[in-house]
Amino acid sequence: MIGIATMLAQAATLAASNYAADVPMRAPTTRPAWADDFGTSIDSARWRFDTGRNRDGWFNHERQYYAADRPENARVEHGALAIEARRETLPTRADWGGQGYTSAKLVSRAALGYGFYEIRAKLPCARGTWPAIWLLPDTGTWPDMGEIDLMEMVGWQPQVVHATLHTVAFNHRLRTQRGAEARVAGACTGYHRYQLDWQPHAITIGVDGHGYMRVADDQPGGHAAWPFTVPYHLILNVAIGGDWGGAKGIGDAALPQRMRVDYVRYWRAG
Questions:
Q1: For a Cys-Cys bond, which of 97, 103, 188, 210 suits 64, CB 3.0-4.6 Å?
Q2: 24-46: buried (b, 16+ CB within 10 Å) or exposed (e) per residue?
Q3: What DSSP designation does 173 have?
Q4: In Å, what is the CA distance from 126 to each residue of 33, 139, 154, 188?
């Protein structure tokens, strides 16, 4: 049986603190090229639900079933998107894979690219929750395709957010991933602005106008080191459990838990 110390050591490899920065970040004052203030309902022209691995199980040994078009798991209330993770089973669903939890995963229909992103969100903090705001391209296999983790937080480490990049040459399987973390007081009780400045040869990630991670395209390897040259889709989800999120178990008594998103804004690079 794996002990908790070993589990935490393994989980720690999913985070990185080797590319810390301390730089200002400022959202443009012009009109965004793509945005959603959510209004009264989820806009199916802007978002789709990802349910693709429900039957086989999701990555990183996560334990949720991602439901589509189910208001218990994703809805707009009081002008904000709510993605809710629940302790329940849905055995009547044709693609149910035996999961004991439900949640939702929304993916932008538009493929976005270089520019400035700002997502104003309030996070869940219960043990076992794993909210994320991240980006992936249309096609490719991981990690060749690249991954930009704009914000991740695990509930057993509340009020600490993580920014991480994954590529063939730099990823958590090799323990070479590039990233940093920041403490965000009140991450679970108030809204904060999670930000990404994605330029052709540098990526900066921050919160509330403070950039805490910056990675430049300055390593050899070509695509293996820097695949961030094509448009990516923005993803919003709350996972449950998994190698990192579930490293200290799941606090069932605290469920349901929600990530609330007030708005999403994207300004295309000039």
A1: 103
A2: ebeeeeeebbbebebeeebeeeb
A3: T
A4: 35, 33, 8, 9
Q: Which of 62, 84, 118, 147 is catalytic?
A: 147
Tokens at 159, concatenated: 């009020």
- Give the active site residue among 62, 84, 118, 152: 152
Q: Contact 245/270 with Cβ under 8 angstroms?
A: no
Query: For residues 107 and 47, is the Cβ–Cβ distance under 8 A?
Result: yes
Q: Is 152 a catalytic residue?
A: yes
Positions of the chain with pLDDT lower than 50, given as ranges:
1-12
Q: Which residues contact 174 (CB under 8 A, 6 or more apart)?
A: none
In the chain, what's the furthest Cα-to-Cα distance? Answer: 55
pLDDT digits over 247-263, tens only? 999 999 999 999 999 99
Amino acid code (one letter) for 255: L
Distance from C-alpha of 246 to C-alpha of 63, rounded to nearest angstrom: 9
